[in-house]
Write a structure and sequence with these properties.
The chain is of the alpha+beta class and 465 residues long. The chain has helices spanning 3-11, 20-25, 46-58, 111-118, 137-143, 150-153, 187-191, 225-237, 250-260, 280-296, 308-319, 344-357, 386-403, 428-441; strands at residues 16-17, 37-41, 63-66, 82-86, 93-97, 102-105, 123-124, 160-166, 172-176, 200-207, 209-210, 214-222, 244-249, 270-278, 301-304, 331-334, 337-338, 361-366, 372-373, 375-379. It has a 7-stranded antiparallel β-sheet, with helices on both faces. The protein has a 5-stranded antiparallel β-sheet with strand order 5-6-10-8-9. A 4-stranded mixed β-sheet has the order 1-2-4-3. Flavin-adenine dinucleotide is lined by residues 29-30, 64-72, 75-76, 87, 107, 129-131, 135-136, 138-140, 142-143, 145-147, 195-196, 200-201, 322-323, 411-412, 415, 448.
C-alpha cells in the first residue's frame, strides 16, 4: 500500500502533507541547508508516532523528527524521499510531581511554556536556550541544548531523568526514570544529544528546580573586549559560578539596541551580563566579588537591574540577539564552538582576523562563562558566491577553536553542518564506536540518516578493510 494512504488512514488527511508547498515549509530548519520530505505528518500520540515509523520504515523511507525547526545545524533537514514527523502537537504537560520536582511532558512542548506553567508553584525547567520561546523540549533533548543559565545548572542532559521513545522498529521503550541512579547502562544519557538518530522521543521526564528567592543581574560595560574576556576568566578562576555570564561585542550590542531598545551602550566595546542567584546574603557577596573583578579589569560602568522589569529587559536584549540581525541583513550564519576559557582571548582575536581577511561583517554573542563562542556573520545570500565565502570563513573559525583545544559544538549539535568536521576531534576508532552504537539502535539506518556521523565513519566501510 502507498505509505501516504496508510498515513492518511492513521492520522486523517489534514495531518498528512504531500503538496510541494507544504513540503517546502518543512524543508529547512533555521540553518542554511535544505531538503525535501516526501511526506510530512503531525502525529498526536506515542502510538501514532510508532505506527507512522513502522509505515515509513516498511516503505524504505528515511525518518526524520522535527520539533520547532529552530535548530541551526541542519539536524531536522529532511532528505529527499523522507518521512518527516513534526511533533509540535504533542505539547502536553502530562503530570507534575511537585514534591519530587519532576514532570512528564510531551516532546512538542515549547521550552518556555513549561516554566511559565509552573511559575505559580515556584518551579522551573532550568535549560533556557535563547530560542526558548519557540524551541521544543524534544528538540532540546535531541540537541542537548544549552542556554545562558546552563553555566551553573548544566545543559539539558542534567535535567532529563527519563525518556519514552519510539525505536527504529516501531517499539515504544522507556529509558531512565525517577530513581537517582537507574541500574544498567545510562541509555537515557545516550539519547540526550543524539539528534534524532537513535529514536524518536515521545515523552520526557524532566527535573524541575526551585525558582531562586533572590536574583541579581548586572550589566558590566567595557571599552576593550579583551578586558571583558579577562573578567570572564578571572570570575571563573576565582571559583565563582554565576547563574549566567554572557557577553556581546560592539556590533552585536548595536544590533540588539537598535532592535530591542533595552538601554545598552552602543559605543561600548563589549558588555557582560552577569547574574547571580540564591539567598539575599549569598547573592550580595557573589555580586560584590564579580564587581570587584570587573573594576580591577577597568569596567567603565556596572549597572544592577533594580526591578524585575529591568532584568527582563536585559534578557530580552540578549535573547533577541540573533533575531535583531534581520534589520541589517537578510541572512546570517552562526557558528557554535567551545574553547578552553584560558584561550578565549586568543581565539577571539583569530576569529576577528578571519572575518576581516574575508571582508565579512562579524558580530559575537557568547555564553562566555562556558567558553562557548557564537560568531555570527550577517550577509546577503543573493550576492553571488557570498554564502560559500561565509561558510568557508565560519569553517576557519571552527578550525581556530579546535586548534586551541576547543571542540566543534557547544550546544547546537552536529547535524549536517559539522558532520564532515567530526574527524577533527574524533579518531577513526572513536567514529567507528559511535557508528556501532547507532547500528545497535537502528541497523537499517532509517532514523535521520546522513546526520552527525560522516560518510566512512565505520572502519569496516573503509577501502582495504
Ligand atoms: C534565535 C535562536 C537562538 C538559539 N539559541 C540557542 C541556545 O541558546 N542554546 C542552544 O542550545 N540552542 C540554541 N538555538 C538552537 C535551537 O533552538 C536548539 O538546538 C533547540 O534545542 C532545537 O529545538 P527545536 O524544537 O527547534 O528542534 P528542531 O530544530 O526541530 O530539531 C533539532 C534536532 O532534534 C531532532 N529532534 C527534534 N525533536 C525530536 C524528538 N522528539 N525526538 C528525536 N529527535 C528530535 C531533530 O531531528 C534535529 O536533529 C537557537 C536557535 C535560534 C534560531
Amino acid at each position: 500500500m502507498d505509505p501516504a494512504a496508510e498515513l492518511i488512514d492513521l492520522l486523517g488527511a489534514s495531518l498528512v502533507h504531500t503538496h510541494p508547498v507544504d513540503r517546502l515549509i518543512y524543508a529547512k530548519d533555521s540553518g542554511v541547508a535544505s531538503g525535501d520530505p516526501a511526506i510530512v505528518v503531525l502525529p498526536g500520540s506515542t502510538e501514532e508516532v510508532a505506527a507512522a515509523v513502522r509505515i515509513g520504515v516498511a516503505a524504505g523511507m528515511p525518518i526524520v523528527a522535527r520539533g520547532a525547526g529552530t535548530g541551526l545545524a541542519g539536524g531536522a533537514v529532511p532528505p529527499p524521499g523522507s518521512l518527516l514527523l513534526v511533533l509540535t502537537r504533542m505539547n502536553e504537560i502530562h503530570e507534575v510531581d511537585e514534591i519530587g520536582r519532576t514532570a512528564w511532558v510531551g516532546p512538542g512542548l515549547v521550552n518556555l511554556d513549561l516554566s511559565e506553567a509552573l511559575a505559580d508553584r515556584g518551579l522551573e525547567f532550568a535549560p533556557d536556550p535563547a530560542s526558548q520561546q519557540s524551541s521544543t523540549i524534544g528538540g532540546n533533548v535531541a540537541t542537548n541544548a544549552g542556554g545562558p543559565h546552563c553555566l551553573a545548572e548544566g545543559t539539558t542532559v542534567a535535567h532529563i531523568l527519563g525518556v519514552e521513545m519510539v525505536t527504529a522498529d516501531g517499539r515504544i521503550v522507556i529509558l531512565g526514570g525517577e530513581a537517582p541512579d537507574e541500574p544498567g547502562y545510562d541509555l537515557r544519557g545516550l539519547i540526550v544529544g543524539s539528534e534524532g538518530t537513535l529514536g524518536i522521543v515521545t515523552r520526557v521526564l524532566v527535573r524541575l528546580i526551585q525558582r531562586p528567592p533572590e536574583i541579581a543581574t548586572m550589566l558590566i560595560v567595557f571599552d576593550d573586549i579583551h578586558t571583558a574576556a579577562q573578567t570572564v576568566s578571572d570570575v571563573i578562576a576565582a571559583g565563582l559560578v554565576p547563574a549566567a555570564l554572557e557577553m556581546m561585542d560592539q556590533p552585536m550590542i548595536e544590533s540588539v539596541e537598535n532592535f530591542a531598545h533595552v538601554g545598552l551602550p552602543t559605543d561600548a566595546a563589549a558588555v557582560l551580563i552577569a547574574e547571580v542567584v540564591g539567598t539575599a546574603e549569598g547573592t550580595a557577596v557573589e555580586a560584590g566579588e564579580i564587581r570587584e573583578i570587573a573594576d580591577r579589569n577597568g569596567a567603565r560602568e556596572i549597572r544592577t537591574a533594580a526591578t524585575d522589569e529591568e532584568r527582563a529587559l536585559l534578557w530580552k536584549g540578549r535573547k533577541n540577539a540573533f533575531g535583531s540581525i534581520a534589520q541589517s541583513a537578510p541572512d546570517y550564519y552562526l557558528s557554535d564552538t567551545v574553547v578552553p576559557r584560558t584561550r578565549f582571548v586568543e581565539v577571539l582575536d583569530e576569529i576577528y582576523a578571519i572575518a576581516e581577511r574575508d571582508g565579512l561583517r562579524l558580530m559575537n554573542v557568547f555564553h562566555a562563562g562556558d567558553g562557548n563562542f557564537h560568531p555570527l556573520v550577517s550577509f546577503d545570500a543573493s550576492e553571488p558566491g557570498m554564502t560559500e565565502r561565509v561558510i568557508g570563513a565560519s569553517h576557519d573559525m571552527v578550525l581556530a577553536a579546535v586548534a586551541a583545544g576547543g571542540t566543534l559544538s557547544g550546544e547546537h549539535g552536529i547535524g549536517l553542518e559539522k558532520r564532515d568536521l567530526m574527524h577533527l576531534v574524533f579518531t577513526p576508532q572513536d567514529l567507528d564506536a559511535q557508528a556501532r552504537i547507532r547500528d545497535a539502535f537502528d541497523p537499517e539506518a532509517s532514523l535521520n540518516p546522513g546526520k552527525v556521523l560522516p560518510d566512512g565513519a565505520r572502519l569496516s566501510e573503509r577501502p582495504g578493510r
